UniProtKB/TrEMBL annotation:
GO terms for molecular function: zinc ion binding. It comes from Aphis craccivora (Cowpea aphid). This is FLYWCH-type domain-containing protein. It comes from the Eukaryota. The lineage of its organism: Eukaryota, Metazoa, Ecdysozoa, Arthropoda, Hexapoda. Pfam families: FLYWCH. The keyword Zinc-finger applies.
């Protein structure tokens, strides 16, 4: 997985997955218009800067001080977030029905 993939965190924030590392949005650089995304691990110095809408990586520091996430962990987070969103949107549905809908999508 070397392309940029956008996912949603459990708290509803946008995240980027790039090379099995998760990044959160930090800020937009005024001069260049680039968006800076930092690694989700608190003390990790890694970041990437991208230009939208092409999602072209303009610069990066990919020196992580931790291991990458597994593909299963990322898929688990996507499924968990999807289930939580559908459950809050349809509070009267049975949990098993919500889970089956999310697994089929």
């Amino acid at each position: 997985m070397s392309e940029i993939q956008f996912i949603t965190s459990e708290r509803g924030r946008s995240l980027i997955v790039y090379k099995l590392f998760k990044y959160y949005f930090e800020r937009t650089l005024i001069v260049t218009g680039e968006k800076k995304w930092r690694c989700c691990i608190k003390k990790c110095p890694a970041y990437i800067k991208i230009l939208e809408p092409s999602n072209l990586i303009t610069s990066s520091n990919e020196n992580h001080n931790h291991e990458s996430c597994s593909e299963q962990m990322i898929q688990h987070q996507q499924l968990s977030t999807s289930v939580k969103r559908k459950a809050t949107d349809n509070p009267h549905d049975k949990p098993s029905k919500v889970l089956i809908q999310c697994l089929n999508n």
